[in-house]
From TrEMBL:
It comes from Kibdelosporangium phytohabitans. This is ABM domain-containing protein. Pfam families: ABM. Coiled coil: none annotated. Gene3D superfamilies: 3.30.70.100. Residues 7-63 form the ABM domain.
Length: 123
């Protein structure tokens, strides 16, 4: 599972922003199932930043967002940007690429709370 968040931060606020990002990264990477967090600063636009956090699973992502200190600091921090969570589809290492099997149900885009016990076929 990938959490990707893009931020627009004026250069005058970049020191405070990077300190807030470091705290968010420390809190998230301390959670079980958090693989790593990476903060990037655009080489083309000094106001653009990107934070990517990798989790071992959807469950690990959801659990990592639950502790009080994460909800107190990380959630407000992420709300400053444009955040989305992504299921990992393909990975590549050493020139070899491989697809992962989706764990998202085929009807995930249309299923509602009443369908909780419905189909579990992956996409």
């Amino acid at each position: 599972m990938l959490l990707v968040c893009g931020f627009t931060v004026p250069e005058t606020e970049s020191a405070e922003f990077s300190a807030d990002a470091a705290k968010a990264m420390r809190l998230l990477t301390a959670q079980a199932g958090c693989v790593r967090a990476v903060l990037g600063h655009s080489a083309d636009d000094p106001d653009r930043w990107a934070l990517t956090v990798e989790f071992a699973s959807v469950v690990a992502y959801r659990r990592a967002m639950s502790p009080f200190d994460v909800r107190e600091h990380v959630i407000p921090f992420l709300s400053r940007g444009d955040a989305s969570a992504y299921e990992v589809h393909t990975t590549a290492t050493d020139g070899q690429a491989g697809n992962r099997v989706s764990v998202v149900a085929a009807d995930a885009g249309t299923a509602g709370p009443r369908d909780a016990s419905g189909p579990a076929m992956p996409r």
